[in-house]
Amino acid sequence: MPHLIYLQSVTGYEAKEGARRLEILRSLLRPGFTIEVVVPPDGPKILEAPDDFAQAHRGRVAVVRSISPDACGAIIAAGAVDPGLRDLRAVARVPVIGPGEASLFVARLLGSRLVILTVAPAAAAGREMLGHVSARPEFATVRSMNTTVRKLLADPDEGRRLMREEAAAAVREERADVLYLGSMTQGSLGVAEDLRAQLGVPVIDPLPVSVHAAEEAAAARGGSPAGGTGTPRAAPGRAV
What we know:
Blueprint: E1 3-7, H1 15-28, E2 34-39, H2 50-66, E3 74-77, H3 85-91, E4 96-97, H4 99-110, E5 113-119, H5 123-132, E6 139-145, H6 149-154, H7 156-173, E7 178-181, H8 184-188, H9 192-199, E8 203-204, H10 206-221, E9 238-239
């Protein structure tokens, strides 16, 4: 049975939140696939400061380096703006999916003016990603929302309100004809469909894009990595 790993960046999500995210990921899978969330044991609790990103990067590189080719079919590097993706691929022995890279390719098929809506701490990484990814709309920019992942989780309703407000402003002020939710937490709040109906433009959620890309990568490799055991054989993280 093809098995996927969703490599988290942080350790600070409560058990209930971790279970909620895992259930969302499972709901996106095609029949026959399994998925688990692996958390680097020495990662930061949350991504808010530059040092947090550096710590998360070191932990994720160590995990990816330890995953054997038969442990899974593909790894999803959690992080909608692909922080450290090239370094992860440099040490990986299985395909590593960048949600941002995959989503920007989809955005290129949908429109010509892309706005990435993301939380303030991820804005710099979003701009860096745009400099590395060529398969994207001709116009692409990052719109930083005045919030953080911590605030979105503390008050999801307020987070959805803010996303609706910023998305409308992106269409109005930057003439966006496609929007991308630039953090995995934003995608997990289930607002994409509402934004599509409200604004009449495509809205890309990184969660389904990255899961489906990982499934295709795993299927292309063939075989049945990990056999659905639910535990990567060499990853020092923990399953959620």
